[in-house]
Write a structure and sequence with these properties.
It is built from 21 helices and no strands. By secondary structure, it is an all-alpha fold. Helix 5 packs parallel to helix 10, helix 10 packs across helix 16 and helix 16 packs parallel to helix 18. The N and C termini lie far apart (63 Å). Belongs to the sodium:solute symporter (SSF) (TC 2.A.21) family.
């Protein structure tokens, strides 16, 4: 990397930080801080969901698989689009209908406080593992490209993420996610043609690739694994407490469904574009082994991107991968504040609750940094992400999703299902190999993790149906007090004002990024026409959003003036 690359990273980081910190005065209450006012545009929420999930190691986890196994990395990711469509059709709207701020709040309303406390404890414990695993690839990217020590990278990046998440809340998270989506889409559309040029074109790449490189299924990634992966992702994306925020923070049920459908569409299109660079690098340099393969994506970028553009790509990768971290930090703070602290101190005012929320974000962030330090000792990011998901995903999130549809499940029944599932999965993961030398392959491990809790939930459903039992907790949930039409209207009005501010921030950030691309294109040794084209597109988007925000602000002012005159 050269000086211009470092300057580009600094400038891009400042754009992201300013955008995130600008929402400090917008998140003045719990609903603003944890659900962005409850009326986020579905397109922004959908892009944020995509980036939050997409960035959880796409460049490191799936990039490593793409380098080692080839086309199967695209197969794995395209399976996620099926999950997105299923969530849009059946789950996202149901979550919005609950009216809950967090999944923990829903569990309290539907299954009781005791059940919620057990799940909250398990969720927060596992979230440390997930979030630490997501922070590690951010630091890995910086380590591979700059040579900066991996542990110092974790400390530096963890601190930056904690600061703007603690200040700006969910709006800071979703806006920075959208910025990352735009810049990374632009960057990868520059990387891809330059990568193909380096290996002599698409035909030469196909000819020089390993024999099994273009098999739809390869190695341990079998058809059974893909089937289990679809089931796992449907449960994980549809029930993970952090991702559920994206369905509950939009204005209505239809918007929530659109969030899921947009996620599915993006995963139908994006895998081929994103996974080709590390696949091409296998032909450029087939010598990577072990944990070195986690850096394949970055090494391809380093080989082909012009000076300055490498810095922009690196900055985009860092903050995109970080979006999974900031999502989890915001959600963990929501649970700690809304469902633990406020339950103990119900008379706390908004000022105190906001102070607790920001403190909780920082404390959970420190725990995340500690976990990230231990990822290399666990065998690398691929092993950590897939193993945690296989063992815990279905057991933790499946029962809550089932409860959205069932009249018969009780707090006790879902806790028993979660407990049995976790014990069985942990036994086969750790004890069985140690005691009897019996290990499950990747596909069987994930199939067990996904379908065992579903089978147990189904068995209880049949048992309760035969005895004509309906949960008393369900009746209490159905009869709970719901917001009035006036309260919903007030929420939407407040949310619309925040939406307009978010659009304005996005517009100015796009203008800054578009201008940066133009400047970098002037001195580029290769790919300058791509950079000018992307810069022009982003500038036009930014200008359009600024114009729209001004029109909406003028309309809001006129409506408010007319209302005051009428009153």
């Amino acid at each position: 990397m050269q000086l211009l690359d470092f300057l580009t990273i600094i400038i891009f980081s400042l754009i992201i930080l300013v955008a995130g910190l600008s929402f400090g005065k917008q998140g003045g209450d719990m609903k603003s801080f944890f659900s962005a006012g409850g009326a986020v545009p579905w397109s922004i929420s959908g892009l944020s969901l995509f980036m939050s999930f997409f960035s959880a190691g796409t460049f490191v986890v799936w990039g490593s698989i793409a380098y080692e196994w080839g086309l199967v990395a695209i197969t794995i990711q395209m399976a996620m689009c099926i999950s997105g469509f299923l969530i849009g059709a059946y789950l996202a709207g149901r979550w919005k209908q609950t009216g809950a701020l967090t999944v923990a709040s829903y569990l309290t309303q539907r299954f009781g406080k005791t059940t919620q406390q057990y799940y909250t404890f398990i969720f927060l414990l596992l979230s440390l593992g997930y979030t630490g695993a997501f922070l590690y690839p951010v630091a890995k990217i910086l380590n591979v490209v700059t040579g900066f020590d991996i542990y110092y990278s974790i400390l530096l990046l963890g601190a930056m993420i904690m600061i703007y998440t603690a200040v700006g809340g969910l709006w800071a998270v979703v806006i920075t996610d959208v910025l990352q989506f735009v810049i990374l889409t632009a960057a990868v559309l520059i990387v891809l043609p330059l990568s193909l040029d380096k290996v002599g074109g698409l035909h030469q790449f196909i000819q020089d690739a390993p024999d099994t490189f273009f098999h739809v299924f390869n190695g341990e990634y079998t058809p059974w694994f893909i089937l289990a992966f679809i089931g796992y992702n449907t449960i994980f994306i549809g029930g993970n407490w952090a991702y559920v925020q994206r369905y509950t923070s939009v204005k209505d049920t239809l918007s929530a469904k659109k969030v899921g459908f947009l996620f599915g569409i993006l995963y139908l299109i994006s895998p081929l574009i994103w996974m080709l660079p590390p696949m091409i690098y296998r032909v450029v340099n087939p010598e990577l082994v072990g944990l070195e393969t986690e850096g394949a994506y970055l090494r391809m970028c380093m080989d082909v991107l012009p000076v300055g553009m490498l810095g922009l790509m690196l900055g985009g990768m860092i903050f995109a991968t970080a979006s999974s971290v900031n999502t989890s930090l915001n959600l963990a703070a929501a649970v700690l504040t809304n469902d633990i602290y406020q339950a103990i101190f119900p008379d706390s005012g908004q000022v105190v609750l906001m102070r607790v929320a920001r403190t909780a974000t920082l404390l959970f962030g420190l725990g995340t940094i500690g976990v990230a330090f231990m990822v290399p000792l666990a065998g690398g990011i691929v092993e950590v992400v897939l193993s945690i998901g296989a063992v815990t995903g279905g057991a933790l999130y499946g029962p809550a999703i089932w409860g959205l549809f069932s009249r018969r499940q009780t707090g006790r029944s879902i806790l028993v299902v979660t407990g049995i599932s976790l014990l069985v999965n942990l036994y086969f993961k750790f004890l069985s190999p140690l005691l009897f030398s019996i290990s499950l392959d990747r596909a069987t491990e994930m199939l067990l993790g996904v379908f065992l809790p579903l089978a147990l939930l189904g068995a209880y459903e049949i048992y309760a149906l035969k005895r004509n039992r309906e949960s008393n907790q369900y009746q209490s949930y159905v009869n709970r007090k719901k917001p009035t039409a006036k309260e919903l209207a007030a929420t939407l009005t407040s949310g619309e004002k925040q939406n307009n501010f978010g659009i304005k921030v996005l517009g100015w950030a796009f203008v800054a990024i578009g201008a940066l691309l133009f400047v970098l294109g002037i001195g580029a040794s290769a790919g300058d026409r791509y950079m000018f084209a992307m810069g022009a597109c982003i500038l036009m988007m930014g200008g359009t959003m600024i114009y729209l925000s001004r029109r909406r602000s003028a309309g809001y002012t006129i409506n408010k003036t007319e209302q005051n005159i009428h009153d």
